[in-house]
From TrEMBL:
Organism: Priestia filamentosa
UniProt protein name: Aldehyde dehydrogenase
UniProt entry tagged with the keyword Transcription regulation: no
PROSITE patterns assigned to the protein according to its UniProt record, in alphabetical order: ALDEHYDE_DEHYDR_CYS (PS00070), ALDEHYDE_DEHYDR_GLU (PS00687)
Keyword set includes Mitochondrion: no
UniProt cross-references to Pfam families, sorted A to Z: Aldedh
Gene3D superfamilies per UniProt: Aldehyde Dehydrogenase, Chain A, domain 1 (3.40.605.10), Aldehyde Dehydrogenase, Chain A, domain 2 (3.40.309.10)
Top-level division of the source organism's lineage: Bacteria
Keyword terms, alphabetized: Oxidoreductase
Protein family according to the UniProt entry: Belongs to the aldehyde dehydrogenase family.
């Protein structure tokens, strides 16, 4: 057993200072590739720590909201530069803390830099429209007001990109922020906040309070001085935040699960479809809300597709994501691994046929980590649990169909509607898919995952609260429209 630790304790960031939690309790953050490696210690905060942060954010918002967009943008450019300078170190921390490969972690951190620069530029763009008034002597136009203090509650699967794609638009439009990152990735989040600190934002503009979701997340939901809450995570927690926010009249935005299908049509390029199914389904160990989890294949190409898929999956190298030749890391935590294993058990019990993987990896070099075999089921029918619930692990369910109509009907027969893709050469099929697929993100001849920062992102049905994040769409959540009527 090797024990490696930098032993560092990461503090809360409140009112421009790094401070311990009021009860002086910490939680250990470990490496899911080796549970005996400690990444650091993070604060187990209490409600009073959050109250202190909210007070600071509320006071800071008065001046921050009065700065020009360009001035706020200058701060975001500085944060981007600070993050870019530390890209390797922060990506390595991400890999060690939540398991994704270093290459993916570095790509995500670079995406964080790009998001910051994109929203820095937004500070210079228009925020309203002139609308002709029915009174010819009046001027009518819209402008935007910030919400005030925004609570940002984030998951562990994209510990750099998701906090940044919520924090950057919140700040550029004049809000101040309290970040509550997932405990499982809080060291990585603390390093991101160090970049904000380095950029010298006014005290109280950005704050971070770590602690359990049931305490700090819940307190954000209930806090009367938090005007908006933006959340990404599970369906159950998202809905409870939505209900809590609605009860006290706060604005909320929820990005939750997916059960994303890929349709492989008779005329698909099978090599391309296999590559994309593997990339979309198994990268990040399947822990993306946009991950492919149902693979709906027309019967004519079912066997060749399946054989190619299994052949390629056999080549996947699993291990510690810091190693160069590793393609898939561990599940992010023991509880996530156990959840995935319980879905595999359920799949077998309900009559699906396990054709590849399905077990925890017990070989000596990996036994201290939370490693799972890439897993493929066939003979999956749509009523089965593994075809309906978000697994969030490296599990693919193959579903054989005769027609495209049947494929679309099955693809839509779930409560989620986040992303979906199809592989076909027929323009007619592409158009049917675009029109009939109930998903916020529809992709043609491309994997289901992969969000572009300049485009709106969000789901239909129960995948989101029907709002959109990222790109220009972010302004809709982080501001309120004011309609102004002026008469001399
Ligand atoms: N859509 C997506 O991208 C994601 C989906 N998921 C789904 O959720 C499942 C479980 O993952 P998990 O990490 O437990 O997801 P959660 O929804 O529990 O966690 C997401 C965030 O919400 C916080 N939180 C937890 N409970 C509350 C609460 N009562 N009030 C407010 N905030 C709260 C968490 O805090 P903390 O964890 O620090 O206690 C974390 O910061 C996964 O298997 C997957 O299906 C998970 C992550 C991302
Ligand atoms: O597919 C992506 O790039 C983003 C996925 C995502 O937002 C998530 O898993 O929470």
């Amino acid at each position: 057993m090797s024990v490696k630790t930098d032993g560092k304790t990461y503090l809360n960031y409140i009112n421009g200072k790094w401070v311990t939690a009021s009860i002086q309790k910490v939680e250990t953050s470990i490496n899911p590739a080796n549970r005996y490696e400690i990444i650091g210690y993070v604060q187990q905060s209490e409600k009073e720590d959050l109250d202190y942060a909210v007070l600071a954010a509320k006071e800071a918002q008065v001046l921050w909201g009065k700065l020009s967009g360009a001035a706020r943008g200058e701060y975001l450019y500085r944060v981007a530069n600070a993050l870019e300078q530390r890209i390797d170190e922060i990506a390595e921390t991400m890999t060690r803390e939540m398991g994704k490969t270093f290459l993916e972690a570095k790509g995500e951190t670079a995406r964080g830099v790009a998001i910051l620069r994109y929203y820095a530029g937004e500070g210079m763009r228009k925020t309203g429209d002139v609308i002709p008034s029915s009174d010819s002597e009046a001027l009518m136009f819209t402008t935007r007001a910030p919400l005030g203090v925004v609570g940002v509650i984030t998951p562990w699967n994209f510990p750099v990109a998701i906090p940044i794609w919520k924090i950057a638009p919140a700040l550029i439009y004049g809000n101040t922020v309290i970040l509550k990152p997932a405990q499982e990735a809080a060291v990585t989040a603390a390093k991101v906040i160090e970049c904000f600190d380095e950029a010298g934002l006014p005290s109280g503009t950005i704050n971070m309070v770590t602690g359990p979701g049931s305490v700090i997340g819940q307190a954000i939901t209930n806090h009367p001085d938090i005007n908006g809450i933006t959340f990404t995570g599970s369906d159950a927690v998202g809905k409870s935040i939505g209900l809590g926010a609605l009860k006290r009249g706060a604005k909320y935005q929820l990005e939750m699960g997916g059960k994303n299908p890929v349709i492989v049509a008779n005329d698909a390029d099978l090599e391309q479809a296999v590559e994309a199914t593997i990339s979309g389904g198994l990268r990040s160990t399947g822990q993306k809300c946009t991950a492919t989890s149902r693979v709906i294949v027309q019967s004519e190409v079912y066997e060749p597709f399946k054989n190619k898929l299994i052949e390629k999956i056999k080549e996947i190298k699993i291990g510690n994501g810091l190693k160069e030749d590793v393609w898939m890391g561990p599940c992010a935590s023991e509880s996530q691994l156990n959840t995935v294993l319980s879905y595999v058990k359920k799949g077998i019990e309900e009559g699906a046929t396990l054709i590849y993987g399905g077990k925890r990896i017990e070989e000596e070099a990996l036994v201290n980590g939370f490693f799972m075999e890439p897993t493929v089921f066939e003979n999956v029918s749509n009523g089965m649990t593994i075809a309906q619930e978000e697994i969030f692990g490296p599990v693919l369910a193959l579903i054989k169909v005769e027609t495209l109509e049947e494929a679309l009907q099955i693809a839509n027969d779930v409560k989620f509607g986040l992303s979906a893709s199809i592989f076909t050469k027929s323009i007619g099929r592409m158009l049917s898919f675009i029109n009939e697929m109930d998903a916020g993100l529809v992709r043609i001849n491309a994997e289901s995952a992969g969000v572009e920062l300049q485009a709106p992102f969000g789901g239909m049905k129960q995948s989101s609260s029907h709002s959109r994040e990222q790109g220009e769409a972010a302004i809709e959540f982080f501001t309120s429209i004011k309609t102004v009527f002026v008469k001399a």
